[in-house]
Design brief:
Strand content: under 5%
Pfam families: TetR_N
Number of domains: 2
Protein name: TetR/AcrR family transcriptional regulator
Radius of gyration: 18 Å
Keywords: DNA-binding, Transcription, Transcription regulation
InterPro entries: Homeodomain-like_sf (IPR009057), HTH-type_TetR-like_transc_reg (IPR050109), HTH_TetR (IPR001647)
Oligomer: single chain
Length: about 190
């Protein structure tokens, strides 16, 4: 998560974090569908309008780091060192995302997500947004005006690698196995591999 620098930004970030933590605690204690937005706001001691100024929907409360994850994927492409190969940077970032998703205590959250059609749908739309942003970054890295089919396909593979790996018995090994295939597909596109 980006660390805010000014006092106002720090207060906003703290309020956002408090709301997200409160919501997740309530969802895990009582079930996602059993908890309403008003209850989350009351428990977090904020107005409903304040909650909605930080989160666009109830589902967004569960995926509080959505924007951070997207930014990290894009920055793996745009912010890598001049000598760091593209696929190595993406592999490193996916390992970090998987590590976050497989962290101790994450299993109950994923069970909750898997049990809720609304959360599964939100997660799928989130992954598609992340893939679109990553495809645009890949295209820009190649000097293209817009994302090609190859850029979009590789971006989806990379984004889906996180979901596949978090479900594996050995997430780290799964990322490595998946990236062997992603690198082969990237090489087959004829795009430069650095």
């Amino acid at each position: 998560m980006t660390v805010p620098t000014g006092r106002r930004e720090r207060k906003k970030a703290a309020t956002r974090q408090k709301i997200a933590e409160t919501a997740l605690r309530l969802f895990l204690e009582r079930g996602y569908d059993a908890v309403g937005i008003r209850e989350v706001a009351a428990e977090a001691d904020v107005a409903v309008t304040t909650l909605f100024s930080h989160f666009a929907s109830k589902e967004a409360l569960v995926f509080e780091r959505d924007a951070d994850f997207e930014r990290c994927l894009v920055e793996a492409v745009t912010g890598r060192g001049p000598d760091e190969p593209l696929m190595a940077a993406l592999r490193r970032e996916v390992h970090a995302l998987v590590e976050h998703c497989a962290a101790p205590g994450a299993a109950p959250v994923w069970r909750m997500i898997d049990a809720s059609p609304a959360l599964r749908q939100y997660e799928e739309s989130m992954r598609l947004r992340h893939a679109d942003a990553l495809a645009a970054a890949l295209a820009a890295d190649l000097g293209l005006a817009r994302a090609t089919t190859a850029c979009r396909a590789i971006a989806r593979f990379v984004v889906d690698a996180r979901a596949l790996a978090r479900e594996a018995d050995d997430p780290r090994a799964a990322v490595e196995e998946i990236f062997v295939m992603i690198e082969a597909a990237w090489a087959a596109t004829g795009a430069r591999t650095d």
